[in-house]
């Protein structure tokens, strides 16, 4: 007899996944951490790269995203307990298994969003 797969409490794995990654910066934080541990300021700087204009990320928003990723088990927060405070964030084992998913999203966006953007840019000119 085949063993039943565990399905999240919401009943739908897609909905559970959507809830896990909902948030403006979560995917980009995971993508940035794929290269190794980062401190808060390094994560913030990485998120600002590639954003149009002089966009700013509210500290409260970034802290909320980091806390949610920590609670979901995708990243780990290491507090060194020194003054001034030193905290690092790194992917957990579970978080590292998520990197190929983000890479697939990035690849899809590279292929398909560039095509979709071209007509918009022509219309705007």
UniProtKB/TrEMBL annotation:
Transmembrane as UniProt keyword: no
Source species of the chain: Bradyrhizobium lablabi
Keywords: DNA-binding, Transcription, Transcription regulation
Lineage: Bacteria, Pseudomonadati, Pseudomonadota, Alphaproteobacteria, Hyphomicrobiales
PANTHER family per UniProt: TRANSCRIPTIONAL REGULATOR, MARR FAMILY, TRANSCRIPTIONAL REGULATORY PROTEIN
GO MF annotations in UniProt: DNA binding
InterPro entries referenced in this protein's UniProt entry, alphabetically: HTH_HxlR (IPR002577), WH-like_DNA-bd_sf (IPR036388), WH_DNA-bd_sf (IPR036390)
Coiled coil: none
SUPFAM superfamilies, A to Z: Winged helix' DNA-binding domain (SSF46785)
Domain HTH hxlR-type positions: 12-117
Pfam families listed in its UniProt record: HxlR
Name of this chain's protein: Transcriptional regulator, HxlR family
